[in-house]
Amino acid sequence: MPRRSRSCRKPSPRCSTLPASFFCSTEACADSFGLGARSAVTVANWGIVIGPRAWKSYYVRHELIHVLQGQRLGVVRRLFMPTWFVEGMAYGLSLDPRAPLADPWEAHRARFNAWATRIPRDQWWQEAGKL
Known about the structure:
The protein is α+β, with helices and mostly antiparallel strands. It has helices at residues 27-32, 57-73, 75-79, 83-93, 105-118, 124-128; strands spanning 3-5, 20-23, 40-43, 47-50. The protein has 6 helices and 4 strands; from the N terminus they run E-E-H-E-E-H-H-H-H-H.
């Protein structure tokens, strides 16, 4: 049975943007969510599933960054964004200590980091909408 994390019990403006979070401690649990070979997954803005190999803060941050992308850009738009941006941002901002990452993830992280240094942080979402 997955562990579900939720910081609120009833809907409110504060809770409306919080994703459901499921932390699976077994592969059977992860398989029940369809994780397959993935360590974790974000399901639109609805929630995140963290598999047993991903109980590390940088994995959770990575998936929450995907939720934020969906909130700021729209879920459908995020699906059609360049992979270097979507995954590069998640790897680059999650403080993932693994370096280098396997291909193509390290290249995506490097490309996002280069993009991010050229764009003022308060303009990231506006500029991301132009990609």
